[in-house]
Design brief:
The longest helix has 34 residues. 53% of the residues lie in helices and 10% in strands. Helix 13 crosses helix 15. A 5-stranded mixed sheet has the order 3-4-7-5-6. It has a two-stranded antiparallel sheet with strand order 1-2.
Length: 360
Amino acid sequence: MATRDLCSALNQFSSVSIMATSRQYIDRLATLHFIALINAFVGESGHSTDSLLNGTQLVSDDLRAGDKLISVQQECMILRNALRLTGAGHLGLELGHRCRLAAYGIFGFTLLSSRDLRSALELFFEYPLPLGTGFDLTLVEQQGIASLHVSAAFDIEDELRWLAIEFCLTALQSVMVDLLYQPLPLSGINIGFAIESPAAPYQGYFNCPVTFDASRPNSLSFDAAWLNQPLPCANPTAHSEMRAHCSVLKSHLESPRDFLASVKSAICAGFDTSPSLSKVALSMACSSKTLQRHLRAAGTSFNEQLCETRYQRAQELLLRQMPVARIAENLGFSEAAAFRRAFQRWSGCTPSQYRSQIKH
């Protein structure tokens, strides 16, 4: 698309969702923008959306719901499915490369209308929304070199952490290229993993030296002079208006997130006595009807939150090799058979099959 076409689009934006992030693993929710990228890639590999969503309690129609929020557990399950279905060795790099500015909706247009690259990047610090994978982003300038440091603030297995870091670094590069309307020469990339990996795939995406040094942060570096590069679509009036929209959208995402986090925490605290709607409502100092009303407003139900929380805890305990009977007791099930049936309904496989899949 030509520069003038994108600039003219600044005055034609519509309200869309923005991906949310949080430092808290249990309460981080996300919209489906990132999942849409994954679905497109998996579809090109000849696999169906249903196979990508297996074990998430989501259906294909959910991907077309702009206001649908998903949990970090659902997001991670989708990533595991994508890795299994595609066999892609560097899925994060490919997804990040596809993550163009338009994929971020209003936030993308807000970045595009910024005064210069530095101003646009500062928006990532104020609204760490688009990364969608639980990252903290900082800008460090030393001796004429600017480095974007990416720190992971989530607790997932190494394979998904590696994928997420690849995605974040590549997506940042893609966004900056779109903002500048020209390639941004990088001076270096560091992946903060001790595991050695061939540099060739990374150089194909970044075209710069790549290091794997666990003593240094995950980072993307370039000449600091680019920070003051004016952006072609800078528009102070549109920028101010769209920043206000970003604040509203962020609050819409974070309000249900915080409330649902409280509900899930209350459910976790009640596992020993088999959590129920009335018990959770009592612990939150409200009536059952009030709790149900707030859950409906957040687009969910008590049973859905109970299942999601149990499913998350079950995954954790299965990874610890806890016996199924003990897991059932830990989660408030009356018997192991009831837990097995519930787990198969949540994930599409039995607890033993899930353990086997994670090992491989």
